[in-house]
Amino acid sequence: MGRFIRYALLFVISLCLTLLILLWNPEEPGDPYRPAPTESAPMELSIAARITEEASQAIQDLAQHLQERIDQQPEEPASKVPSPPFDQGSQVVTEMESEPASENGMQRPPSEDGSPDGEDETADPGPTTSAPEEEAIETGKDRKEEIESLMNSPTHQDQARRELSGESRLGFETAFRCAPEDQLRLAQFFGEKIVLVPRSALDPRDKARSYFVLEPGPPSRLSTISGTPPVTRFRQYRDLFDFDYSRLPEEIRNLRRNVVSRSDVYLFASLIPVREWALIAARRQEALQQYLGGDAHQDPAEVGVKRFVLRYEPLPQGGFDILVDEILFADNRIHKPQRS
Questions:
Q1: Contacts 24+ apart (CB under 8 A), 327-333
Q2: Which residues contact 85 (CB under 8 A, 6 or more apart)?
Q3: Does residue 298 sit in the same domain as residue 314?
Q4: Who is most buried in 113, 232, 246, 328, counting CB within 10 A?
């Protein structure tokens, strides 16, 4: 490295001297310019030529020195590329684990039972379930049994029939919260019917009047029913116009296409049956008892309830529960029940 620096400095000094000689003028500052005598030109040119020749030789020596340094450097070994990981199921045999060759040079074939050493393999116990998961499964089963019990309760079903028939006046509103994508599964779980009633179906003068019913199945089945729909039975339903049409299941979108204009539709909804309304009545009563205290039945209208907001909650094991998200009273009090 020191030799390289010396050659570089020599080269720079040579260039500076060459320029100095070529441009040098011995006259004093302010004197008029006079061209240099022609007699000294050959001497100056010979000095410049000699300096240039020495600089050229120095550059050649520098290049030769650099080439020698490069030739003397050892070649770096090629970087070791890590071997790719073995695919699942491939067998890795290390040198200590490899089996010695037999006399004929062939490896001993594996035993017929599939074990490479002829030993009995331990049976795979399969996936295990942790204690929290087992507890969650049991809790889910208990909850589903509770839901079935409430839907089939004679007491709650009697109350549901009175309310759906109009015999028992409610005096409060019921609002539902659920996802558009769940509408078909809700209908399948609770046994709902999904209807599309054109306004023309209510015209007694129209002899060809009819309406459409989607049986959720599975499999789902679309039917056209002739005659006037029993609209007096449609007291409790989920209005499907309240949901984003593009997010509704395809079967329900196909039902909606039977009537082109929305202004020609009287009802597009999921009709709530008795067993589903029985669960709603039970959950309402639980929420009121939590807020007011006591175990006695409370009439929502008598305690000043203005609106129940209900939410459909999907269950991990399938099906749905109905929970009371909030209760709005006539004096604008709001109670949000806490589920244990």
A1: 327/287, 327/288, 327/291, 329/303, 329/304, 329/305, 330/304, 330/305, 330/306, 331/304
A2: none
A3: yes
A4: 328
Query: 285 and 266 share a domain?
Result: no
Residue ending a domain, among 222, 251, 271, is 271
Last residue of a domain, one of 250, 271, 292: 271
Range of the domain at 301: 151-179+274-340
- pLDDT, block means (10 residues), the chain with 340 residues: 71 77 55 48 51 62 63 47 37 35 41 39 48 57 92 96 86 93 97 95 92 93 93 86 96 94 95 96 93 78 92 94 96 87
Tell me if 297 sits within 8 A of 320, measured CB to CB.
Answer: no
In whole angstroms, give the CA distance from residue 190 to residue 177. Answer: 16
Same domain, 283 and 260: no
In angstroms, the CA 132 to CA 134 distance is 5
Residue 102 inside a domain? The answer is: no
Report pTM: 0.59
Contacts of residue 79, Cβ cutoff 8 Å, sequence gap at least 6: none
